[in-house]
Recover the amino acids of this structure.
């Protein structure tokens, strides 16, 4: 891990980077922002860790917990909500056996995310599975896609 962190630090200095650059590199390399890495950069750069966490929690692109191999994003915007996004989420959570309050399966295979809007209202409800957009989704079609991934 420290080797990766040193590489990011070198790039940061070469490019006169900023906190977002560091966080993007961490997210790319680790799939999330390891707490140890944030404290390491805080110490190396003499920047309070609260600044890192403040930026990380402001932007949706950053994640403070490890995510699954497969990311399932469900739109919860108005059109998707009206067309049944909550039913989709409930069927996902039940099928994947994700406990209430969690978003990732115990085996680390799947993470279920909710977003406010993906901007595809005409094909609501919308689910994005590993960056592929599926419109007019139903619980049955969603379970079939999950089984294909398993």
């Amino acid at each position: 891990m420290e080797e990766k962190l040193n590489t990011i630090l070198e790039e940061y200095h070469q490019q006169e980077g900023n906190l977002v650059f560091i966080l993007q590199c961490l997210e790319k390399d680790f799939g999330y922002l390891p707490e140890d890495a944030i404290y390491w950069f805080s110490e190396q750069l003499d920047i309070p860790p609260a600044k890192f966490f403040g930026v990380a929690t402001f932007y949706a692109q950053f994640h403070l917990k490890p995510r699954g191999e497969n990311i399932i994003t469900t739109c919860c915007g108005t059109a998707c909500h009206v067309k049944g996004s909550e039913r989709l989420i409930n069927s996902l959570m039940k099928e994947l056996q994700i406990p209430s309050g969690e978003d990732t399966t115990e085996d680390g295979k799947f993470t279920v995310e909710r977003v406010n809007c993906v901007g595809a209202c005409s094909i609501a409800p919308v689910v994005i599975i590993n960056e592929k957009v599926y419109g007019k989704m139903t619980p049955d079609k969603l379970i079939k896609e999950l089984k294909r991934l398993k």
Residues 2-14 form the longest helix (13 residues). The chain is about 50% helix and 10% strand. The radius of gyration is 18 Å.
